[in-house]
Design brief:
This protein is of the alpha/beta class. It is 60% helix and 9% strand. The chain has helices at 6-13, 28-44, 62-74, 90-102, 119-122, 125-133, 147-157, 164-174, 178-192, 199-205, 208-222, 226-238, 243-261, 266-269, 279-290, 292-309, 317-328, 336-339; strands at 3-4, 20-25, 49-54, 78-83, 108-114, 135-139.
């Protein structure tokens, strides 16, 4: 019985191939990449032919043993790949897989990809037969607290040097969607080339107009322009902007204003932060208008809004963002009615 996680699979492939692999779990990117790794290792060992059976079009279980046996007659090495769209195989599939795994075909590699099986599914005889004959690779969703490390590792593998703030922003933006994270990392590679990746680069990857409006919103709130804040927020919402990015931008500028108010430079407390143009004047004016204690209160409030926009706490994300902006602008009024 061999059950592995994705990292263990990659290490094990260097030592040789098992006759059967079952890659199962809830995370589609990791399932796809594990299957890619098995196929690549098989090609390196001369498995040149490949047949794909997909449950969405009907697997044709009766053909499994016939195809495997017919391959060995001609001496070719081949991958038979079965893609299950649901974590079930039916009675016919269970018998076909149990029978095959009792005596795997020579010069054939069987690769099965499927969603996560529950306890009952893992107790099925065919599942146990696969486990005995080959390897079961189980993939799990990346936990929220693990996401920054996962993003940093992927950025590094892509040859990108990112600041901690850029890593956190990207991890928050994708909210555990690894496919979206990979797409954004590819965008970053195109935008930055071999240069460093900071928070501004991440924002540029999601659209220059969104980047402009995000910082325009923060400046408007810190300048006390309540009505304009609401107009900008409505525009961002209508354009499909992500609340997590808006909350991040507001929080960063509130923190910068608080640091200046406390007699520190924002760069000392916010990695990668840069002040340009008249930004220092805007931040200092906000600090003088609001005061250090209210700014700290706003940051605690922003932390609560951050939990709401990420789904970790109940509440109306857009209404809370409006309320936060209005509070920063000096108009502490409930935000739900303003955003409609």
């Amino acid at each position: 019985m061999i059950r592995r996680n994705p990292d263990q699979l990659l290490a094990g492939l260097k030592g040789g191939l098992a006759p059967v692999y079952l890659i199962t779990g809830e995370e589609p990117l990791q399932r796809m990449e594990c299957a890619d790794a098995v196929r690549a290792a098989a090609r390196a060992q001369g498995f040149e032919d490949r047949m794909v059976l997909d449950s969405s079009t009907g697997v044709g279980w009766a053909a499994l043993r016939f195809e495997a046996d017919s391959l060995s007659l001609f001496g070719s090495r081949r991958i038979i790949e079965i893609r299950l769209q649901e974590a079930k195989v039916g009675a016919e599939g269970a018998e076909a897989l149990r029978s095959y795994c009792a005596k795997p075909a020579t010069d054939t590699l069987l690769l099965i990809s499927a969603p996560k099986f529950d306890v009952r599914g893992q107790a099925a005889e065919w599942y146990k037969a696969v486990d005995r004959a080959g390897e079961v690779v189980q993939v799990w969703p990346v936990k929220p607290e693990e996401m920054p490390r996962w993003v940093a590792k992927r950025l590094q593998a892509r040859g990108l040097a990112a600041t901690p703030e850029a890593v956190r922003l990207l991890a928050d933006r994708v909210e555990g969607n690894l496919l979206a994270a990979v797409q954004d990392i590819e965008k970053l590679a195109l935008i930055s080339g071999s240069g460093p990746v900071d928070a501004d680069t991440v924002l540029a990857a999601v659209g220059d107009s969104a980047r402009f409006d995000l910082f325009s919103l923060a400046d408007t709130a810190l300048s006390g322009e309540a009505a304009r804040c609401v107009r900008i927020l409505k525009g961002l919402r209508d354009e499909g902007a992500e609340p997590v990015l808006i909350c991040w931008a507001l929080t960063r500028e509130l923190r910068a204003a608080g640091l200046l108010c406390a007699g520190m430079r924002p760069e000392q407390g916010i990695p990668g932060y840069r002040m340009f143009g008249d930004r220092e004047g805007t931040l200092r004016a906000a600090g003088q208008r609001l005061g250090l204690k209210p700014l700290r209160h706003l940051l605690r409030r922003a932390a609560r809004v951050d939990r709401i926009v990420k789904g970790a706490a109940p509440g109306d994300a857009w209404g809370e963002l409006v309320s936060l902006c209005l509070a920063a602008a000096g108009r502490p009024v409930g935000g739900s009615a303003w955003i409609r």
